[in-house]
Design brief:
3-stranded antiparallel β-sheet, mainly alpha, elongated, Four Helix Bundle (Hemerythrin (Met), subunit A)
């Protein structure tokens, strides 16, 4: 029984939340999962509510406003007592969950005990009536201890509820796009630091999150964990590259099919090998730029995907890679149209390879400048900067 186990469990502490990585996803298909999740969500909301009253009372105590301080702590005690009683009622409602859903109880057993311990600690702190003659120092000390317990309680509940919500959010995201974790879940935690701490806790638990966690930038990148979907990304990239050879084949025969004169259409079937070779060299230049760029990211610690997991890297970048390959088609066509690539001479590997490398580098620079421009002119960012200044 959960309540019985709570009698012997340790008090909730920051160390209790140094979670061991889960070996698999939670049993969402079982009836008890969302019952327990509801329990954690309600506990999280009530913990934040109590914290609001507590912060006000502690602030008044530190300011020396005696009558207001006493009234604020009395109001806090009343709110907290009601919430503790409500928490015990909810705990009794899920006490027998093991009989209807043992998988869910086994998954959340430790966290359920820790939540009960936190409410017990708050009950002991505020179980007796305030006499009215408590010193400000004593009230502040009790308030700070309460704040520690509440913050750990809120953090613990957020760690249980956010993965499920995160999955629902990411369902609407395209592969490779990212979600701003702090902006999305800041309402469930006291401050930004706590929100980032939740992200750090979830980072090694890939089975709980349908994406890649970028702790440094506090974002989650949509990624499918299924191997077949990741392989599909590779096939999409290879198919896009193969279309380039089809375009070359069509281009060299188009003059014959439509009876163009050499002056109107200079490409001939004899140039098929040269064009394919040039296309491959440009692709190699683009690939070289991508590999070197990823090496730099890895050294800088900004590469979200483990360096050995190239399959996942291709998967989350399937759209950018596909777009880059399409720019190779454009580059090759423009090079021929403006006679940058002289097909009357022997194939020039350095020219084609360098063109591919630098066109991709230029593409990156343009995208970076565009993103900087958009970010700088985003009304939300401007408002945030005005508040900080």
């Amino acid at each position: 029984m959960i309540m019985a186990a709570a009698q012997t469990a340790h008090t909730l502490s920051p160390q209790d939340n140094d979670r061991v990585e889960r070996s698999g996803p939670p049993p969402k298909e079982d009836a008890g999962f969302y019952l327990v999740l509801t329990y954690f969500r309600k506990t999280n909301a009530e913990g934040l509510r109590i914290r609001t009253y507590l912060a006000r009372a502690v602030e008044l105590a530190k300011s020396g406003a005696e009558p207001d301080c006493t009234a604020a702590f009395s109001e806090l005690k009343e709110v907290l007592r009601n919430e503790v009683n409500e928490a015990y009622r909810r705990a009794r409602a899920i006490e027998d969950i093991g009989t209807i859903d043992p998988k869910t109880e086994a998954w959340f057993a430790r966290e359920l005990v820790q939540v009960r311990n936190a409410w017990d600690d708050l009950d002991r702190l505020w179980g007796t009536d305030l006499l009215g003659n408590e010193s400000t120092v004593e009230l502040i000390k009790r308030g700070q201890r309460t704040l520690e317990i509440l913050d750990q309680l809120i953090f613990l509940c957020a760690c249980q509820t956010i993965p499920d919500e995160l999955g629902n959010y990411l369902e609407n995201y395209r592969i490779g796009t990212s979600l701003d974790f702090v902006a999305t879940f800041k309402d469930q935690l006291p401050d930004e630091a706590s929100t980032q701490r939740v992200l750090q806790t979830l980072a090694p638990q890939s089975v709980l999150v349908p994406g890649l966690i970028d702790v440094k930038n506090a974002r989650v990148i949509k990624a499918d964990q299924r191997p077949w979907r990741q392989m599909l990304s590779v096939l999409v990239v290879l198919f896009t590259a193969a279309v380039g050879f089809l375009i070359v084949g069509i281009a060299v025969h188009l003059g014959e099919w439509l009876h163009f004169s050499p002056a109107d259409w200079s490409l001939t079937p004899n140039q098929w090998a040269s064009l394919n070779g040039g296309y491959l060299l440009i692709l190699a230049g683009v690939l070289a730029h991508w590999v070197l760029d990823r090496l730099k990211q890895n050294r800088a610690g900004s590469d979200v995907t483990p360096f050995s997991e190239w399959l996942m890297w291709v998967h989350v970048n399937e759209v950018p890679i596909t777009v880059r390959i399409m720019t190779v088609w454009l580059l090759l066509g423009m090079g021929i149209a403006f006679k940058t690539f002289d097909l009357s001479k022997a194939l020039q590997p350095v020219t084609y390879f360098t063109a591919g490398y630098f066109i991709d580098s230029t593409f990156d620079a343009l995208i970076g400048q565009f993103n900087t421009f958009v970010t700088a002119n985003d009304p939300a960012n401007k408002a945030k900067q005005e508040k900080t200044t």
